[in-house]
Design brief:
The chain is of the alpha+beta class. The protein is built from eight helices and 13 strands. Helix 2 packs across helix 6.
Length: 334
């Protein structure tokens, strides 16, 4: 495969792998399985291109050119991200320098982006009409097929050797602490930290166009609705638990609007379509015991079918308004 076409194929594979990786973070229901598989196939497709790219790299290193160090950093970050992704898939969920392999996988991929943009600016791989020829399309299918074969090989190896990876959820997450909340990891999005909340002074505010009401913890504890739901964290783990609490519909029985915003005491918040009121639960207990501080005491949101960053912890305000639910960043930035 010619150098320019190899670089172009590599660029497309990396871009699509990055895009499907972020889309996989949003996958909370069965449709996400196809996205996660595509992400794996595209990532392994990069490995298929390695023999051709290594030849190009050796030629490049033999010349003194501007940006060589940046290109080497990009290469290292891509390799680290690929290896960490493979390690997570196989079930190697330990920590390296305090980071999980999933954090390393995502962090290296994000860190590679500015170097990839700089590399492309210095050495653009322009698209030509001939790149869409039948021969080149067959080559692209060959690369994709190679990635698919590697993916199938890793999946088969997990089953043959009874690796932890064989029991991954369709999102790629590994089970930790199902029906044992004490074993469930304590995680929060980006800069949030676990707050110290006094149950005696804490209250929940609910706001609609009709006005505002405050609920004490004792009032919420009078509601005993049970819901078994799976918390699937983008950190690469999941846990099924029985949650006990108040359906949001019971807190907002006559709510009128287009969306409902759930706020955390930390400032974190997520907005949901109003139709989700019938499926959302404000949990005060998990597996029959009060929530721990790390898992959202005194009240957290349970959002079945959505990934963990939607399950707002330490909830202190729920409000309904006429804004569309999608007027927010796909992933929170705080």
């Amino acid at each position: 495969m010619a150098g320019r076409r190899t670089n172009l194929a590599l660029l497309v594979a990396l871009a699509l792998a990055f895009a499907t990786g972020w889309l996989a973070f949003a996958a909370g229901t069965g449709w996400g399985a196809a996205v996660v598989i595509a992400h794996g196939v595209l990532g392994l497709g990069v490995l298929v291109l390695t023999p051709w790219k290594s030849t190009i790299a050796r030629r490049g290193l033999s010349k003194k050119r501007k940006g060589t160090s940046s290109s080497l950093i990009l290469t290292v970050l891509v390799i680290v991200s690929l290896l960490a992704g493979i390690a997570h898939s196989l079930g190697l969920t330990g920590r390296v320098a305090g980071l999980t392999v999933m954090q390393i996988h995502v962090g290296a991929a994000v860190g590679a982006v500015p170097f990839a943009i700089g590399h492309l600016a210095r050495r653009p791989a322009g698209v030509r009409r001939t790149d869409l020829s039948r021969r080149n399309l067959l080559r692209a299918m060959g690369v994709a097929g190679g990635g698919a074969l590697l993916y199938a090989g890793f999946e088969s190896a997990s089953k043959v050797f009874s690796l932890i990876g064989q029991n991954r959820r369709f999102t790629g997450s590994h089970e930790i602490g199902s029906h044992e909340p004490a074993r469930m990891p304590v995680t929060q999005w980006l800069n949030d930290s676990v707050p110290s909340i006094d149950a005696g002074t804490w209250s929940l505010a609910t706001k609609t166009v009709a006005g505002e009401r405050r609920w004490t913890l004792d009032e919420l504890l009078e509601h005993r609705h049970h819901l078994t739901a799976t918390l699937d964290c983008t950190g690469g783990w999941y846990a099924e638990q029985e949650w006990t609490g108040v359906p949001l519909r019971a807190l907002l029985p006559s709510a009128e609007g287009r969306s409902v915003m759930v706020h955390s005491q930390t400032g974190y918040a997520r907005r949901f379509p109003i139709r989700d009121l019938d499926s959302l639960l404000l949990a005060t207990e998990v597996e029959g015991s009060p929530l721990s501080a790390g898992h959202g005491f005194p009240a957290r949101l349970v959002a079945p079918g959505r990934r963990g960053f939607w399950w707002v912890k330490w909830v202190d305000l729920i409000e309904v308004d006429d804004r569309p639910w999608w007027i927010q960043l796909p992933f929170p930035m705080e």
